Automatic annotation (TrEMBL):
<dbReference type="Pfam" id="PF03401">
    <property type="entry name" value="TctC"/>
</dbReference>
<protein>
    <submittedName>
        <fullName>Putative tricarboxylic transport membrane protein</fullName>
    </submittedName>
</protein>
<comment type="similarity">
    <text>Belongs to the UPF0065 (bug) family.</text>
</comment>
<keyword id="KW-0732">Signal</keyword>
<feature type="signal peptide">
    <location>
        <begin position="1"/>
        <end position="25"/>
    </location>
</feature>
<dbReference type="InterPro" id="IPR005064">
    <property type="entry name" value="BUG"/>
</dbReference>
<dbReference type="InterPro" id="IPR042100">
    <property type="entry name" value="Bug_dom1"/>
</dbReference>
């Protein structure tokens, strides 16, 4: 387990957060009577360091810390395709000084594994944006399009790396299999960084990774992107020439969301505090930089709207995992 503390709090902001003598993990109040978390805050990342979830968690923690003046440490609790981190977070029920960097595993795990939680167990705070994936292969691969991969899989063994049984890449490959009536062999890993290493090392044939995880390797010429599993081509210059899978006759588009949640059963004041902090973060240059650097679509929603999004996304995933 790795733990890193982000220290961006401004002294002026910190001075405003004069907490009362409340004990435990419950919130206190500032000098003017407003809610504030009692002490430092911990951001749980349910995957290992170096992947897209880790990048998201650290960016969110830094942005919230800069706005609130509260120290926020980032703790990686990887394992079980995210189940270890989410289960640990479930145990923090009612604690308003815990947050978790959430993504599609929040919805996929309850549908595929015997876990004790669903998105309804927690308090959804903010969805920052949507993260699609690219189908990538080594630069010397014989594949030049996603159709090449599908055609080869009809007669031969094509090995795909996936970052867990409930990950976005697993979902995307399942959708491709269903749409094209093919089957890929899977090799599971714990994170996108491990998937990338296996692909570069020639241990697998294909991978479906977020643009932020592979842009450097694409630009360096170590990898090539065959298609994007998105509704439309990216507008980012570095990705604008990559066709969508839909353009190539593969009717698959699915995004992983990036956002953060709080434990279940926190107070309404705590929920509104974190939503307000998220809204403030979304108006900053730091948020814009995170979205641009990680090549996301900035579709921010908060609170109840985030809950509605999660409910709809769960319905879509139920169809995938029921097949």
């Amino acid at each position: 387990m790795k733990s890193t503390t982000i220290t961006l709090a401004a002294a002026g902001s910190a001075a405003l957060l004069l907490l009362t003598g409340c004990s435990g993990a419950g919130g206190g109040t500032t000098a003017d009577g407003e809610f504030a978390p009692n002490g430092d805050v911990r951001m749980i990342v349910p995957f290992s360091a170096g992947g897209g979830s880790d990048t998201s968690g650290r960016a969110i923690a830094a942005g919230l810390e800069a706005d609130t003046g509260v120290n926020i440490s980032v703790e990686n609790r990887e394992g079980g395709s995210g189940a270890v981190g989410y289960s640990h977070f479930l145990a923090q029920n009612g604690k308003d000084n815990y947050l978790l960097a959430a993504e599609t595993a929040l919805l996929a795990l309850p549908l595929t594994q015997d876990v004790q939680f669903s998105y309804e167990s927690f308090t959804p705070i903010m969805k920052l944006g949507d993260d699609f994936t690219l189908l990538v292969v080594p630069a010397d691969s014989d594949y030049d399009t996603c159709v090449d991969v599908v055609d080869d899989a009809k007669d031969n063994r094509v090995v795909a790396a996936v970052s867990g049984a409930t990950s976005l890449d697993e979902i995307v490959f399942t959708l491709v299999e269903d749409d094209q009536d093919v089957e890929f062999d899977r090799v599971p890993f714990e994170s996108g960084s491990e998937v990338l290493a296996s692909l570069l090392g020639g241990k697998v044939d294909i991978a479906s990774l977020n643009p932020s995880e592979v842009l450097g390797q694409i630009e360096s010429g170590d990898l090539k992107a065959l298609c994007a599993f998105a509704d439309e081509r990216y507008e980012f210059e570095a990705l604008a020439d990559i066709p969508t899978a839909i353009e190539q006759g593969i009717d698959v588009s699915f995004a992983q969301f990036r956002g953060f949640i709080a434990p279940g059963e926190i107070s309404d004041d705590a929920k509104e505090y974190w939503i307000a902090a998220g809204e403030a973060f979304a108006e900053t240059e730091a948020y814009d930089t995170y979205i641009a650097d990680n090549l996301l679509q900035p579709n921010a929603v908060y609170g109840d709207e985030f809950v509605e999004y999660l409910a709809g996304n769960t319905s879509d995933l139920e169809k995938v995992f029921a097949e």
